Write the structure tokens for this entry.
Amino acid sequence: MDASTLQENSAPSGPETAPRKPRYLISGRKSLVKPLGRCPKAQTLLGYFPDDDAYIIAELPCQNWGCRSCAEVKIRRLAALTRDAKPTRMLTLTVNPSLWKSPRDAFDGTRRAVSELIKKLRAKFGEVEYLRVTELTKNGWPHYHLLLRSGFIPHTVIKQLWSDLTGAIIVDVRQVKQQFRAYTYLVKYLSKLHRIEWTARHVSYSKGFFPPQPDRKNEPLPIERTSILPMHPITYLNQHHKGDSIEPFTPSTFKIVERFRHDGF
């Protein structure tokens, strides 16, 4: 990624001056303002907005858990959704290291047991929806933190079922008495996630865990002539718009507002 950054332009404003959106000058000088560049592996989306006769640029983040910036965004979204899901139980499931050659073997041998456990619990107790977070111990062994939405489930039943499935006997289950605890719980464990070499699926959840969300897939974008470039937006801006300025269009999209010189449109 190009080391160049974006510098905010200051504009005088008086009592009769209408408030204006901040503009950012594309320059090689260091700046504390970084409207783009959060994801180091982001690509560049270019488009044209006919209503304003304006060209826009957007950052397309990689959305991988291994990317700190994208992981933080995913954590905030999952935590907010989890708050709305209103879980009632916190469940921790461990593995028995003596039964496995390595942490990777333990993960491969137990990860599907989580969904099997849920199936068995549903057969006995009805609705059981879950969100699962995989974490590593200090010694590198996997264990699973789950937020459940369910009625009362005896600890002894969960312990016996998990032991039958995996050979591990250490199980902890607690009631969620305040929804804020569920929110902070998720942020806490996701924020300290280790990079797990053998899986990118740090989080999984049942289909019914989250409340229904609005379907925005079919909503048309208010832009035309879109194209995606396999380069970081800061690299693109410094190659094609050095000295130009941009201003916010949406939270993740910016207009090219001065001296547009790209020949791709």
User: Anything to note?
Assistant: The mean pLDDT is 79.
